[in-house]
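Box S2. Input/output pair 1.
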Amino acid sequence: MSLGSAREVGVAPPLPVAVAPTAPEVLVRAIEDGGGRYEPDPARARALQWLGKDAPALRRLLAGSPGIEWVQLGGAGVDTWAAEGVFADDRTWTCAKGAYSEPVAEHALALTLALLRSLPTRVRATSWGEQLARTLYDSHVVIVGGSGGIGRELIRLLVAFRARVTVVRRTPAGEGEHRFEDLPAVLPGADVVVVACALTPQTRNLIDEAALRAMPPHAVLVNVARGPVVDTDALVRALDSGTIAGAGLDVTEPEPLPPGHPLWGRSDCLITPHSADTPEMIRPLLAGRLRENVARKVRGDPLVGVVDADSGY
C-alpha cells in the first residue's frame, strides 16, 4: 500500500525515526523491527536515536528538527547531559539505563573475585609468594545503588555465592534496603562494597574519607558507576594506610586516569578503562532497547528508560 493510499483509508504511516550522528545498520533494522521507519533526515523525523556525546551538536540538530518529540540517548548515565541542560524542553527523553546491566554486573563480579583472590598481586609476581586469597561465598556485599539494573543483576549473580546483600539507595523500598544517609552505619559489616549508582549531586563523593574509614580493613571497594562517586584522593589515602584492602575501578576521577597517578601500578588496585560495557557488547543491547521503545511508541505505551531530569537519571 502506498503512503497516499494509507492516508486515504486512515492508516497512520510508520513512525519516522532518525539516528545520528551515524546510523549503524543494526539500529536501522531495530527501528524497522519495532514497527517504525528509518528516516535519514532528522528534520523529517518524529523520534531520534542519538549516539553522539556532543551536547552542542545535539542542540543544533534539535533546533533544526522541531518535529522530534522523543529523543533516546545511547548511554545509560545522563549526568553529563543533565549538566549541559539538554533536558530543558518539552520533549520526552529516554536513555539506555538498565539495558547494559548484564555486562556491567558481570564486570563488577570479575573485579570483586580478582581482588578477593589477590590477582593484582599475582599478575605482578616473579616468585611463588604467599597464599593470599579470600572467598566470596557467604560474604556480606553492600551494593550502593542496588535498585538499578546493574544492582539487580549483580544481586542475581551473587545468589550463587550465598552472599548476604545489603542495598543502599536514594529511596529504600524493602527489607534490607537503606538510604544513602545510612551508609556509615552499613559499611562496618561489609566484605565487599560495590558502587553502582547514578552520579547526581547527592552521590558525588558519596564514598569519601568517612565512608572508607567505616569499612573494615579486609574489605574491598568496586566502582562500576561513575568516577566522581568516589573521592579519589581519599581512596589513595585509604589504600596507602591500609584502611581498606583493595579497590577495583572501571571508572575513575579524573577519567582517563593520567599516567603517573598514584593509583597506577599498585598491587591493591585493579583498574580497567571503562570497559565494563564495550561498544561491541552494547550495540546489540542498545538495538534491543531501541526496538522495544519504537514498538511502544507506535502502540502508545509508556517508554522504557525515561529520564527523570529532576533526579538526574
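Box S3. Input/output pair 2.
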Amino acid sequence: MIGTAFAVLAALGCLYLLYAAYAAAGARRDADASPDGPAPTVTLLKPLHGAEPGLFENLSSFCAQGYAAPVQIVCGVQDPADGAIAVVERLRAAFPHADIDLVIDPAQHGANRKVGNLINMLPLARHDCLVLADSDVGVSPDYLRRVTAALAEPGVGAVTCLYRGVAAAGIWSRLSALAIDGHFLPNVLVGLKSGLARPCLGSTIALSRARLTAIGGLAGFADQLADDYAIGAALRAKGLRVAVPNFAVRHSCTEGSLADLWRHELRWARTIRQIEPGGHLGSLVTHPLGWALLAAVTGAPTVGAALAVGAICCRMVLLRMLARRFGTDAAPPLWLVPPRDVLSFAVFAWSFCGRTLTWRGRSYQLRGDGSLRRAGRNE
C-alpha cells in the first residue's frame, strides 16, 4: 500500500516536470524596451564577503554596461582584512573610468550581516535609483537598461531577476548549479505561470530610494534571513508589485565540498519552509525520483524502477528546455541527474528536522517569523 502511494507521488512528479518543461518552453524573451524619457542615474550596491571564485568577473560585468546614464558602484565589506578589497582595487585598475566606491565598515546592525553591510554602504549612494545585487551575480551588458525599463512601468515598486547556475569549479559546484537550473528555476517559472509565486530575489532588487524609505529602510530587515523576500512583501503591502523581467542573470556556484553544498541548500530549504510553509510542503511533488526509489524498495519494485527511469528522462527534457530558453549550459551528463535529484530529495526531507542553519561559518536559529538568532545566545 505504501509503495503504491510513493508510486503515485512519483507519477505526479513526472507530470510536474513535464509541465515545468512546458512552462519553460512557453516563456518568450521580452522585446527590447527602454524607459520613457532619459535613463535614470543608478547606484549599484554590491555587498561583498571574501574573494570568492569568479568575483572579479562578476563585478566586471556590472562595469561593462551599455547604459546611457551615469552609474555609481558601491562595494562594501565589514572586515578590513577581507580578501574582496584587493579584488575591488583590481577592478578599479581595470576600469579606470568607472565610478567605484569602497566602504570598509565593521559596524553590525543585526544578525543578517549582508543587510548590515548594505546599511553601512547606503550613505555613499548618490543616485535615487538603487540596484542591490549579490556578489555572486554576473550580468549581460543590457542588464541595467532592461531592469530600469521594468522599474519604470506603472505600479512597479521593485524589479527582481531570475537566475541560472554557473559552476565555478569541481563536482560540488556543478551539482549546485544543477540544483538551480533543474529545480529552483523551473519551480519559479511554474509558480509565476500559475500565479502562486511572488518572488523577490537577492540576485537583483532594483527600487527607488523613496520606495525603500516608504517601507522603513533597510534597518527593518537586518535580522531577516530572507531579506529579499521580506523587502518584496513589504512593497506588496504598499500596493506595489515586484516585476520579474523575462531573462536570467548568472549565479556563480562556488561550493567546494559536499558539506558546503549541504549547508547552503539546507539553509535555503529551511528558510523557504519558514516563509512559505504550504508551498514548501507542496514541493514534495517536485521530487519524483526520490518517491520512485522509495516505491521500488517498499513493495512496488517494477513500477518504482520504471518511474525512476521516467523521472530521470523528464528531468533531462526539462533541463534541455531551460537551456534553450535561458542560455544555460547544455544539459548535463546523464550520470549527474540521479545524484542531484536524490540529494535534493534528502535536503527536502531533512529541512523539516529542526531550525538550525549555518551561514558564512556561523550557526543560527531560525525563529518563527523568519528572523535569525545566533545559536547559543539567549534572547
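Caption for Box S3: Residues 42-259 form a domain with the Spore Coat Polysaccharide Biosynthesis Protein SpsA; Chain A fold (CATH 3.90.550.10). The first strand starts at residue 42 and ends at 47.
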